[in-house]
Amino acid sequence: MFSVNIFTAIIVLIMGIYDISYAFNRRKQPNNKGGIRAFMILGLIFTIAGIVMIVRCLLK
After folding, report:
1. 17-58, pLDDT tens digit by residue?
2. Domain residues of the chain, as ranges?
């Protein structure tokens, strides 16, 4: 289907974990309620995609 470099997969995984941690740390602030869900969803997508890419790189 497509080939991905292992470094790209690691960077995507790190971005996903960073987005999740950013949303998790900002959830208690009263003025940042709008973007928290977006960062959490984006972080989940990046984390899942990064794991899938790493698995595909290792199985290749």
Report:
1. 999 998 888 877 777 666 788 889 999 999 999 999 999 988
2. 4-57
Q: How many CB atoms lie within 10 A of CB 19?
A: 20
CA trace torsion 33, 24, 29, 39 (10° rounding): -30
Reported as type and span, the H/E element at residue 54 is: helix 34-59
Question: What's the DSSP call for residue 58?
Answer: H
Cα–Cα dist 17/37, whole Å: 14
Q: How far apart are CA 28 and CA 36, in angstroms?
A: 10
pTM above the 0.85 mark? no
